[in-house]
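Researcher: I'm preparing a figure for a lab meeting and need a structural model of a single chain. I don't have an experimental structure, so a prediction will have to do for now. The sequence is pasted below. Please return the structure as tokens so I can convert it later.
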Amino acid sequence: MKYVIGIDVGTSGTKTVLFDEKGGVIASATIEYPLYQPQNGWAEQDPLDWWNASAKTTKTVIEKSGVAPEAIVGVGISGQMHGLVMLDGKNNVLRPSIIWCDQRTAEECEDIERLMGGRDRLIAITANPALTGFTASKIMWVKKHEPEIYAKCAHILLPKDYIRLMLTGEYATEVSDASGMQLLDVPRRDWSDEVLEKLGIDRSLLGKVYESPEITGTVTPEASALTGLAPGTPVVGGAGDNAAAAVGVGVVSDGRAFTTIGTSGVVFAHTDSITIDPKGRVHTFCCAVPGAWHVMGVTQAAGLSLRWIRDTVCAPEVAEAERQGVDPYRIMDAEAAESPIGANRLLYMPYLMGERTPHLDPKVRGGFIGLSGMHTRGDMIRAVLEGVSYSLKDCLGVLDGMGVKPDDMKICGGGGKSPLWRQMLADVYGIPVTRIASDEGPALGVAILAMVGAGLYPSVKDACDAIVKTKDSVEPDPARTAAYAKFYAVYDALYPHLKADFDALAAL
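Model: Understood. Here is the structure written out token by token.
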């Protein structure tokens, strides 16, 4: 039996999983680390925290499993996208990494579109408008505000690619994660000389771009001593977190899509031919399947909305859950299930953190519409579930308008554990919603990429067909789909009606 390791460098922690060649979990370990917010709207992490967590969890799973290091034939790395890691010529970290959710770069986004000669030209090359979350605007911020740091910079890497450097000594990335830097020519799958020249960023700062299953380097003796991996173990390109999750749930060919409900929500669809939304409402990135792409819509506050109402309104449900020894969300689900479709004519706008798809509006905020004295907490919980579902339907609608039309929807993330929410999504989408047997997501995805790189499977699709199994599926009910459609029509009209009010509120 041969084995592979998947390392997932997340925002809250790093999870490392040892898999056998059939995708079975042999051992798993997670280490958490802090997020720093030195100013309102800023978000930073220490890359050394990621490396220490990656090295220790890798060593732990090897020791726990008893598997001989020589039997581990490959390593795949997934990670939070968009983070900026800046190193000097000796690979010392120059400053804390500015990570994906940092919002300090609004002016730099305007600068980027101006330097590119307009948003349309930028979208034509990078497939996306300038966004505060992307890496290019972070680089421009450091150039403007910390020129002494930028002058010392010899290498720019993404979070997971810093782990690659520490494992292999190689400066490299791969197409899915590089797509989120806004420096990649996404149709051509390589760095854009035009973007780099106009933004004044030297190409030598960036690593070599690989396809996700390609071998990018091998474990060094120094990394071997810290991780327990055998020297010379191949490390493949890996993938950004959502592209890795797509492989982990088998979304690797046309007609396949998945929804993930974590803090944010994502609707992600595979496409063999590139398609770009000229309005920039969804992201088009290279995916982890060589020669293919994905389109992705994002709801900023999906699971966050449910957590918010749990923490602010649902103290009785939390207390009851503690008494029963169950998850509070199970109690909340039961109450929401007693409320009818439409939550007794109560709608929820899930814009707690602004919105990306389809509105791309940092000023919009959340709200309950139609609240009356007869509404219960169960109605409010159901309205939140429905409002997030409608926002995810917005994402799917943009994809549909681009000709990307999935016939089935895989689901993952914490929200996917709720039977009520899964059925609600199937009914709102009007297509089946399917759970995957494995809960490992990105870690399994990059482990599959490592298997392909090691020659255990001929292609990513072949590996997924052999490894990824479904758990169960829920079908949409036509009558419920029709009922949700009436409330969705009202929800859909709320943002245009209220946009000017949110702008005015933000200006106060």
